[in-house]
Every structure is written in structure tokens, then in C-alpha cells.
Amino acid sequence: MIKKILFSLLCLPGLSLSAAASDSVIGNASEFNSPNGIKEQCIILKHMPGGVYSETDQQIEKNYCSMDIYSNTGMCPKTWSTSPGTMFYPLNGSPFSSVSHFEGSACHNQRRIPIKAIAFKNTMNMRDTSGTFSTASLLYYHFSRYLNTQIKVPVAVYRSIDKDIHRQRVTQAGLSLTHKGMINHAWKGMLKIEQNPAAYHPVNEVFTSDHQQIYGALLRSTGKRYNQLINGSRKSGWGEGQSRDFEKTPAFMALRSDKLLGQAITDHRRNISNEQMVFWMQDIIEITLLDYIFSQQDRIGNIDYTKVWLSAADNQLQRSQSRPSGKRSQQIKQTHLNDNDAGGRYRYANYTKKTGMLEMIRHYNSATYQQLLKLDKDFSQQGELYQYLSQTFGLTIKQRDMIVKNTKMAAELLRNNCLADKLIFDLEPEQFFIQGSVQPVNQSCQL
Asked: Which of 377, 367, 445 shows the shortest CA–CA distance to 407?
């Protein structure tokens, strides 16, 4: 059943949809009871019209929303990085005798836990904390499926949690296990607002409309962190500086080249294979487009990868975890965009926009370009994608309008470059791998 959580504050005098981001999301809801009798919800958001969702995506969504976090599941506070996330560890079949045994003996050193965790990310934007907006993970998931990206963006679902249980089992542990830095300030902030939700403004950005639960996104990160070949040297400092370092990485420099694809790769590949370069180039146009649309302020240094074997059969690209026998094959690094929590909020700094990344790009993928133009046209006409964006994620009017405006600006920038013959539509990684070269597509600049 399609269920909509009503935004009860709309019923109060003088308040409108623009007051605060909220838990007013649309999708298939599952309900759970906390030990305090609070009704929690896990919601698989309605899929984006035109999006490509795999069977694996849909199974992961179902798995997340069938997980009862109070049934033999350990909860640990995130004690690394800067945001106050919660890590869920299913304990079935584990060596731990009980949840209390696990949380008392394992949470202090989670690197040694032999269980793959599912993360819960909630919003946190307080003094001396980093910027974290849980809705961003949901936006990136669904828009990546609309753009049919090559990069791997994790499946994300909405989840609410009893704030008092979370405070007792997670927040207090987070405070005791951290001692300095933004992560410690974040747990201090969580303790303060879980004791008094009104201490956070806007309150509905963190808490459900009854103020009895916090809400956020469930997801699982996969992969290892790239080195400076993709993440850049980061020598020029956070923000604009490291973004300009990112623009000097080999694959980005090849994207900036006016030469045809093969020569652009040859000029900038260093000790990187041609095939890896072309896949990385496609990764970068997808990353920069999503980050531009959502005003992502904390991308550089937060890009991950896994390794995958590529081969071809019957003129089709195949991916496998082990090396296939009897075929021409190559192992490449496949990009994962896991850390997407500093976008979607209009107060965040859009460093992709500030440093002119889209303007620099000269090579593009025809299908990605067409999807962007379709998205922009629909937003301009307030069509079904506009309605989907407006209704599905619990966004404020300002947040929705920022996404619509950024989409329009991205489309105009790339369209103008196309009209000025500054875009070459030859970025087809699969074709390049199979055939060894790509002829530019004669792509219309308009829909």
C-alpha cells in the first residue's frame, strides 16, 4: 500500500510547507514498535518515474524495511569521521551471547567486528559539527537511478527511531567513546536535542512531527577510499581549494581536453590504462552532475571504489568479481558514491558550481545529457518529475526550488557548450572497452 505520512504542522496556523524539511515522505511503509511502545516506520520511497531500479536494489530495500532493530541487533555509535551515525549489526549466528554483551564489548573498536553493518544517518547541523542532511542520501539514490549512472550509489530507505531508546543505547555511548573533534561535538549535540527537541532548529529536520522519534536514512557503504588519482591531492585546503585540486586529476584533465577521446586519454593517463581512464571519465561527469544539482559541499576526498573484472561476450560488456577464463578481460576500479549527506540543503556551499566544473568539461555521454535535458524540461513544466520531487522527500519549498534551479543551470551550461561546439559526445565506456575506440555521436543540443 502506498502510504503518505502527513505533515501535521501544516495544520497549525501560520505555518507552510517551507517551514522545515520533514518526515513527510511517500512510499511503502512498514511499522515497528519500540520497547517504549512508540510506532516507528521504515519507508521504501516511491520510485522515480523513468528510473532504472535493479532487482538487487528492490531486494535491498525490502531487507532494510524488514529489519527489526530491536530483535537481536546491536547498535553502535559511529566514532570516526564527523557525523553522528548509528551502526546496526545483525547478531544472528554471531559469537556474541547477547545484545548487551555485544554493545558493551565491541562498540569501542568496530574495525574488529566481523559483521557487516547497516548505517543509519540522521541530520545534524549544529555549532561545531559537520553538515549532515539525511534526505540527501535518499535524493542521490533515486536520482542516480533516473540518470542510470555507472557509479554505484547505495540503496537508501527512510527510517524513524524512538529518540529515547536511541539516546540511551547510542548517543550516550557515542559521547563516552569520543573525546574531541566534530564527532564528539556531534554526539554532544545529539544528547542535547534528544533531551529537548526544541533545542534544534528547524526541529522537523531531525525529529518526526510528534517529536518522539529521530529519522534518517538506512544504507550500507561498500568499498575503499580512492587515493589522489581520483580524490585529488587536497593540498589546497578544504572547499574550493581541494575542488580545484580535483579538477587536476588525470581523468578530469582528460575530460577538459578539446582533443578526441583517444588522444585526450593518452595525453593525461600517466600509468593508468585507457580502459580505466574512460570509465573514470564517465564517473566524473556523473559525480559532478549530481553534486551540482544537489549543492554537495563535501565530496572531495570522499569517493570510494571496489574492483571488478570486465570482459566482453557477443558484443556485450560483462562484469564479474573473479577473472573470467578464455576471454579478454581487465580489472578496473568501479566508483562508489557512498558519502552523500552534505547536499540537498540550500545553506550548503555548492563547490561544483563555485569552481566551474561543468563549464570545463568537453567530453560527455549522450544518454546522460539527454536525461538531464528531459529532467530540466519536466521541472520547467512542473510535470511528473517535478511533482515527484515536491511530494516524495519531505523537502521545503526552498530546497525543492534549489534543486530545480540547479538542474536548469546545469542543463543551460551544457547546452550552451554543445551549441558552441565545445562538447564532444564520445564518452561511451562500454563501447570503448569492447571496440577499442569510439566515434563521436551527432547529438542534438536540444531535446
From this structure: 377
